[in-house]
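User: Can you predict the 3D structure for this chain?
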Amino acid sequence: MNEVYEKKRRELIKSMDMSDSQTMFQMHEAMSAEWATALADKIDHFADMGNNGVVMFGQVASQLAQFIDQKEKFFKENFGSFESATASSPTFMGAMLRSFGNAPNPPEFEAQGVKDAKGQIDYENALQSVNLGYTYGSLTIEPEGVFVVFKGLPSNIVEVQDPEMPFAPQLVELPIITGDQFAKEKAPESAMTSKEAIKTWTAGQLEKNPQAINNSVRAYIAAQSQSGKKLTLEEVAADPQHMKAATEMYINQAASAISMEEMPEPTKTDAGASVYMDDEEAVELSFMGGGKFEFTMKDGGKVPAQIFRKVEDMDSPSKTIFSRFEARYGSGSARKMGMALGKA
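Assistant: Here is the predicted structure, written as structure tokens:
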């Protein structure tokens, strides 16, 4: 993600943080304020009731204090703050970090193979819903308790329920990323030069990358399910044999991302056999008989070819030419071409 954009995105989210300026949601602030006002307005009424009035006043005042404590706790737990929230937090600030603008899937979710199905609008609507239902100005203090009009109906204030975790994510599974898809999306160019290179890179990812590990297990479970075997993430993770099989399958899938071209066919010549080399240095590889091979270079020169050594043990130009050849046609293709030339 563009760093400038991400910085601006986070600045905008920080500007939404109200945790320093308020301690309750708007509806609860209004209810508390109206409750305190109604209590003050009734102080003479309670005084006229004598001891019973004093007791009732103390009960209503204590109930108000408890209400404020509960709603402050509800705000702190569900609104959160920009400084303390992460993109996976079940708070409004966490919801904005994972949904506002072009937000990436949180790494914690990515590693579990899940994403949040809710979007920015869903969370903005949830914030509004926290403040909906109460008819402002409807609070009254009665002998039976404190009453409000909530969702159009007279209700005892202790029975008014807040939504439970209104900003929690709705987690759904991500599509399974197979080994070949993972390689194409994540592997560097240097790892995509041959099947052996991508296998080595993928094996390394499966040792340290939680996303790769989770993908491999999920891909393995899906493959097992197709053959009628039902497994869970927990069962596979707890079984070394399953984990080994999942790793091997994923590495082989990654290797399939490298599509090797078909090697050219040798042509029989008077001297032996030759094959066209579509290379930046050589135009032809020839077998001269007696175990001798040579390149015809682009400038027309002839150079001996060391075809039956390991590429890394060859001298130049054989080393550079056959390195490109094996990157194109697969590991061991130089030796295979040598055998094909000898049999032509």
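Residues 234 and 319 are 48 Å apart (CA to CA). The beta strands are 114-116, 140-142, 145-150, 153-156, 171-173, 267-268, 273-276, 282-289, 292-297, 302-304.
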